[in-house]
Amino acid sequence: MVESAIIDAPASTKGRILAQAVRRRPHVWLSPLVFAGLIALWWSATDVFGVPAYVLPAPEAVLGSLVAGLAKGPFDPSGFWLHTGITVWEAILGFVLGSVLGAGLGFALSHWRLLGQVSYPYIVAFQALPKVALAPLMVVWFGFGLEGKVFITAVIAFFPVLVNVIAGYQAVEPERLELARACRASEWATLSKIIVPSCLPFLFAGLSSASVLAILGAIVGEFVGARAGLGMLLMQYNQSLELAPLFAVIVILGVIGCLMNYIVTLFERRYCYWARR
Length: 277
Hints:
single chain, mainly alpha, MetI-like fold, 12 helices, flat
């Protein structure tokens, strides 16, 4: 709508309309400006101040490695597409599994208070364990296949969803629950019409965090033992001190995390439109 208004408006008012649009959505130009500033600082550190390439590769070297890796075929193990697909698949499976378990257990612990009081300390203690320490056990239990990576990803994505669902359940207004009891609403009606809609903003907040942590879980699993994946590439490039392709892989991981988080945001806009964060 803004674009059509700018096109149809007279030349004298186009500048004013554009200025109003920029003031209304400053992030549209601030985000690219921050990105350009970071690239400029990076370039200055390597080309102006002479930081050696074995400490920080130049932006053009990272871009060249990124283009070279993406230019190879989707099934070429020397390229990026095959390893990216494997890591994304592990992250998605672990994210879905951890989110479903976290949401379901969060509702159960909140609905049955005694169960929550008994179980929650053990869940917190398990979450406090470093996941890198659990990763070798995944190799022992599941081998070098997909299952271990999915499990460790689900464990990492599980807790943010659980905590946010519990917080959402506890944030339901008591007056609404009392009104439902006064109207003799069934337990299912109370849950589906009052509790679940009230929990949805908290649930999507947890899913937003879990979507990013899922990438971390997949990489942690691949660090310990994997035949393919971006985590395996990071280990290989780190051992051989190839920093330019290593930074290229880091860029790919950042893009994947942003895309997964954006997909969660789209679902939030669709199913939780009344409580936009």
